[in-house]
Amino acid sequence: MQGGSSGIGYGLKYQARCISDVKADTDHTSFLTGTLSLREENEVHLIRLSSGGTELICEGLFSHPNEIWDLASCPFDQRIFSTVFSTGSLFDIDLPFYGLKMETGLIVFFAGEGESYGAAIWQIPELYGQLNSPQLERIASLDAHTRKINCVLWWPSGRHDKLISIDDENLFLWTLDCSKKTAQVQSKQTSGMLHYLSGGAWDPHDINAVATTCESSVQFWDLRTMKKTNAVERAHIRNANYDMKNNHILVTAEDESGIHIWDLRKPKSPVKELPGHTHWTWAVTCNPEYDGLILSAGTDSSVNLWLAPTSAEEDATSESIVESPAQQAGPLLNSYSDYEDSVYGLAWSSREPWTFASLSYDGRVVVESVKPFLSRK
């Protein structure tokens, strides 16, 4: 089924790539997003869906000094979140110019030295109804990295004092103490010379298991020993996400080759393959409540909604999804195509699992409901 967006829009002032559900806010459907401006002061927006579900309201707008490449909300405290940011660029430092390339319609410049990346844990100040609030409070800096940082991971459910940060070559496990405003490295492991890490996902079913992505594989780690336990060998993996409802299920987005669903007990080949997007499939995320409901986003300026249960039992018992001609024809339930730029950010709402937010590079947030594809119980 193809269609444009009928969702609720919200515009950021600058370009952006990352958005996160505020899972710890159990009273509102809320999202955090951050901007990626080279020249201007960047911003973090706290956005809430109105009680009637008809508009997106900015509940807080906070200054962030650097370009935000990754943002994740703390799962147990709605005022705490992490960012990965760049500190310097070709445009504000005097460096030799080494080259450029085209990436999804953007010119990406490379400088010889000077640009670095940092990561920090922040706390939102008490708002007291103010829109332009005091500055964000930096709780801790994850400053042990010497390589380009790609992401920070929180364990998806419950209170946990551990954090993971991933750079191009290393996996760090941190102990975070918000009350003392400290973060200490507990352990570190290097992926090896042949593996250039790009991101990761923490297993919601096993607090000691994490997956890291690189161009040629997904690697699985035991955090107790910081040793690799397994790997899925695939080319050009952009993103990976664990299924919140089913143990052992991982979904990957793989550039031109689409979306693959893996049973990690049988990692040699995927249990299901979805066609993905007409250009790079950039992000993929599993619904927190409904089995087999998957979102993907791509540089073809679209978001796709898929139904792909992972077992015959789920196919037979999945009463939450409407029987429809679109389903019978294939796993694609809908394609939201009313975007003018690449879509990099996706987030399901934990509070209202039939709701998701998407973010395109031009700073446009769209919140959609998938209720038309769910049964009326």
From TrEMBL:
InterPro entries: Beta-prop_EIPR1-like, EIPR1, WD40/YVTN_repeat-like_dom_sf, WD40_repeat_dom_sf, WD40_rpt. Residues 5-89, 116-306 form the EIPR1-like beta-propeller domain. Keywords: Repeat, WD repeat. WD repeats lie at residues 274-306. The keyword Repeat applies. Belongs to the WD repeat EIPR1 family. This is EIPR1-like beta-propeller domain-containing protein. It comes from Hibiscus sabdariffa.
